[in-house]
């Protein structure tokens, strides 16, 4: 059975490429956007989590490559979060959630993602401060666990934290978030498979579309590209999806 109605396949593909483009331009894998689209197109809940993590792997990896080439990646800002987030994401990936609880929790996270795109959490960078390693490790664990449970990479949560605490610049945040999303997505998928879940193989057909959008977004985003109008449109789509999930 197709994971998306054939009548809307082209529309879904175009929107998927746009989401990958927008998210990769800011160093994200796009899982929250993919989940929002899947909710709107009535994907089964059992398909949403693994599909979003799969697409996250490719798009976040591409995004990290472009930002790394521009020398925005700072390892000292990445490791404290990753050390705890990776095992936590693995554990989260093994945790099955009831459909109703999953939809409500995901809806809340998507609202936060939409608010961030609207600029509520990252309108300006805080004054640069030294990273607090114990705090960063605690934050990493919490984000990792939630990421594995919901099928997201956690960048949409990590990015505003880095900026609000003044631990990284906008470009550094994009580079850190992209690798953070990549390793968490790998861990989350690994935990998912350990739970003896069936993987929706049709999700692989979506990968080339996401990769195409992700490459374009990462290329322009790692340079000077910015398009606020499209980001606001994407935020609106995510808000609509979150309402559909929660109500």
UniProtKB/TrEMBL annotation:
Source organism superkingdom: Bacteria
Cellular compartments annotated: Cell membrane; Membrane
InterPro entries noted in UniProt: TM_pro_TauE-like, TSUP/Inactive_protease-like
GO cellular component, as recorded: plasma membrane
Major location (coarse): membrane
Calcium among keywords: no
Transmembrane segments: 7-26, 32-65, 77-95, 101-123, 135-168, 174-193, 205-223
One Pfam family here: TauE
Record bears the keyword Transmembrane helix: yes
Keywords: Cell membrane, Membrane, Transmembrane, Transmembrane helix
Membrane topology, record value: Multi-pass membrane protein
PANTHER family in the cross-refs: MEMBRANE TRANSPORTER PROTEIN MJ0441-RELATED, MEMBRANE TRANSPORTER PROTEIN-RELATED
Family indicated by similarity: Belongs to the 4-toluene sulfonate uptake permease (TSUP) (TC 2.A.102) family.
Name of the protein described by the UniProt record: Probable membrane transporter protein
């Amino acid at each position: 059975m197709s994971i998306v109605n054939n009548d809307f396949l082209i529309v879904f593909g175009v929107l998927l490429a746009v989401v990958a483009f927008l998210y990769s331009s800011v160093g994200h894998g796009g899982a929250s956007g993919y989940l929002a689209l899947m909710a709107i197109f009535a994907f089964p809940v059992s398909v949403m989590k693994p599909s979003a993590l799969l697409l996250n792997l490719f798009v976040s990896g591409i995004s990290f490559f472009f930002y790394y080439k521009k020398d925005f990646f700072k390892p000292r800002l990445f490791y404290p979060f990753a050390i705890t987030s990776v095992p936590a994401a693995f554990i989260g990936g093994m945790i099955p959630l009831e459909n109703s609880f999953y939809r409500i929790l995901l809806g809340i996270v998507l609202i936060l993602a939409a608010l961030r795109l609207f600029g509520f959490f990252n309108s300006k960078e805080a004054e640069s401060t030294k990273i607090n390693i114990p705090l960063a490790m605690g934050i990493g664990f919490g984000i990792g666990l939630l990421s594995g449970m919901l099928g997201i990479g956690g960048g949409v949560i990590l990015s505003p934290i880095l900026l609000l605490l003044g631990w990284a610049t906008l470009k550094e945040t994009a580079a850190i978030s992209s690798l953070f999303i990549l390793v968490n997505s790998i861990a989350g998928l690994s935990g998912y498979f350990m739970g003896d879940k069936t993987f929706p193989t049709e999700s692989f057909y979506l990968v080339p579309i996401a990769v195409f959008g992700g490459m374009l977004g990462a290329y322009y985003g790692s340079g000077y590209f910015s398009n606020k109008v499209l980001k606001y449109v994407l935020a609106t789509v995510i808000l609509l999806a979150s309402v559909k999930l929660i109500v």
